[in-house]
Amino acid sequence: MGFWNALFGGTDQSPEEEKKEQEAKNFDLLKYDGVKAMKMGQTDYSIRCFREALKLKDDLETHDYLSLALLRQGELDDALTELQTLSDAEPQNLNILLRMAQVAHMKEDYYKMGDICERALQIDDDSPQVHFTYAQSYIGQQNAVGAIAMLTKAISLNENYADAYLLRGQTLLSMGDIAGAGADADWLLSKVDDHEDVLLLKARTESAKGNTNEAIAIYDKVVELNPFCIEAFQERGQLKFNNGDKNGAEADMQKVLELDPNRLADVSGEYSAEGIEQRVRQAYSAINPLGL
Q: Which pTM value belongs to this model?
């Protein structure tokens, strides 16, 4: 029997060996069907494929694929479980920890996010991205002082870290540090002058300084860049109203209502010319764009 198998290319295999070989083939088929399905946007099917594949073989790459598919599906807890499996296997892998922190951020579990960032700092205390991510967790915990410290550290490690300047400027403004926020806004504008978030930060700092006309002009640039920016219309409208430009305030208010009818749900009744001043005052009295 062995002679004929050798002669014709066959092999002697035990049932156990044949079973293992078939499982290996099935694993490969399931894994790569899952990858193909994920690329085609068939996320449900890809998740089923990856989970069945993992029943046959514990494979880190498949855990990684599964975590990505689960994220796409919005199954954050399960995605975090898969990432934890990867982190247990590669405890020094900084990228995995950063991904875990991002998922915790999506879950709004800011304390868990902070714990993950603390672990990441133990691996690389000189990573600007880790300090930036840690700052995001502090902001979620409403610890602005801790966030500023982390963002400042991130900037000291990477002096061109624009995202860190932007988040620090926004946080400083929320704390009432108008000068500090303005300095970060100016630095950002020296690098790029057509970024929506940067212009919003600059407009808000000018507004906080009492430079209403300058702020309105900057909001004008924002809506030119993005005619769907609700914050720009809403905050510009408030400045116009405070400046006595009731027609301009009404126009911006109407634009806000067009873009998001629920944004001003506390304003009862339809918008009309009658009682415009009262309605605009009611709407804008609830708005605090600076977060102070």
A: 0.83
